Amino acid sequence: MSAASASGAVNALMPLAAEYLRVLANERGASSHTLRAYDRELHGFAAHIVECCGGEFPLERIEHTHIRAYLSTLYDRGLSKASAARALAAIRSWFRWLAGTGRIERNVAMLVATPRLPRHLPRVPSIEQMNRVVDSVDEDGASWPARDAAILELLYGCGIRNAELTGLNLDDIHWANEAILVRGKGQKQRYVPLGDAAAGALRSYLAERAAKLAAAAGDRALTTPALFLNLRLRGLGKIAGAQARLTTRSVGRIVKRIAIQRGLSADVHPHTLRHAFGTHLLEEGADLRAIQELLGHERLSTTQRYTQLTTAQMTQVYDRTHPRAK
Questions:
Q1: Of the residues 92, 190, 257, 271, which is catalytic?
Q2: Distance, C-alpha 249 to centroid of its chain
Q3: What dihedral angle (degrees, nearest 10) is formed by the CA atoms of 293, 298, 302, 307?
Q4: Half-sphere exposure of 40 (CA within 13 A, CB side)
Q5: DSSP symbols for 171-185
Q6: In this structure, are strands 179-183 and 189-193 parallel, antiparallel, or unpaired?
Q7: Is residue 53 classed exposed, middle or buried when 0-12, 13-18 and 19+ CB atoms within 10 A define those classes?
Q8: Which of 30, 156, 252, 286 gives 24 a disulfide partner, CB atoms 3.0 to 4.6 angstroms apart?
Q9: Phi, psi angle pair for 143, to nearest 5°
Q10: Known catalytic residue: 271?
């Protein structure tokens, strides 16, 4: 196939993909992470159609067999079933939109079965381990102890996602109601209770945050709505809109460094603390529906995957409820 024909096929498919990405961003409030992932997956599928079918292959002739063949190429490249499932989800979503807007007659992607994924329960630190980590943030393991302690308190004490944490603004802390306004996936908002420990850690950090901003400002008036700032206030005041906001990647490094120093495994990441939040609430008797609301899950089945019943809890439930256990 010539380079010109390949380019023609990509150019025929990708404007539709680009239009769909704009719909996701503007009408459905998709996150930047989701947009990047969908853009990557749709580009990959378009390139596969070019390679296997030629540059002039029309969209309406794409069948479920083409999608299955594309998933096979992902396996051949060594990608996992989870990666293939993510690619299929993006293609399904795109084809659903194409069918809904009349570009194609039916969503052939629905005929492709999702790869069966192994069910792994997340490895969750115990309550004692989490308390040890959160209660022992100091200068040995943290570049800004007050900030990093507040980060751990919110991730574990409120169960919020990494992106939700870094997206928090000062105005999202509702002190009078002892709650935090969190913007979740799809720009859905929810209020999460702010516990005493998290509130205390936030107050300590905010005092240092204000002092650091004042020292950096000098004679200038430097402000930022971002709650969590990077250590050196990089970018603040240099360009319009710069906020010195801490990135999700930096939060990941902070959590891993402190956790490893306190004896946890090297695979700990911010989402581990979210798993721990849900699991420990369940262990202490919280209702699964309440945990669903706190975590911001649309489906209860998602909450069930994020939590795990311990042997001790199952034994307690059995002893309390089964007539032959009494």
A1: 271
A2: 12
A3: -10
A4: 10
A5: GGEETTTTEEEEE-G
A6: antiparallel
A7: middle
A8: 30
A9: -75, -30
A10: yes
The tokens for 220 are 């200038």
Catalytic residue among 86, 274, 275, 280: 274
Q: Which amino acid makes up residue 2?
A: S
Return the structure tokens found at 174: 């509702």
Digit-by-digit pLDDT tens for the chain (326 residues) are 444 444 444 457 878 888 999 998 888 777 788 889 999 999 999 889 888 887 778 888 899 999 999 999 999 999 988 899 999 999 999 999 999 999 998 999 999 998 887 665 557 888 899 998 898 888 777 889 999 999 999 999 999 999 999 999 999 999 999 999 999 877 789 999 999 999 999 999 999 999 998 888 776 767 889 999 999 888 776 654 558 899 999 999 999 999 888 888 888 999 999 989 998 888 888 888 888 989 988 888 778 776 655 555 566 666 777 676 65
> Is 38 a residue of the active site?
no
220 is catalytic: no
Q: For this structure, is 185 an active site residue?
A: yes
**Active-site residue, from 66, 161, 262, 275:** 161
Question: Would you say the pTM of this structure is higher than 0.85?
Answer: no
Q: Where would I find the beta strands (DSSP E) of 93-210?
A: 173-174, 179-183, 189-193
Q: Among the options 92, 185, 190, 305, which is catalytic? A: 185
Residue 40 has phi, psi (to 5 degrees) of: -65, -45
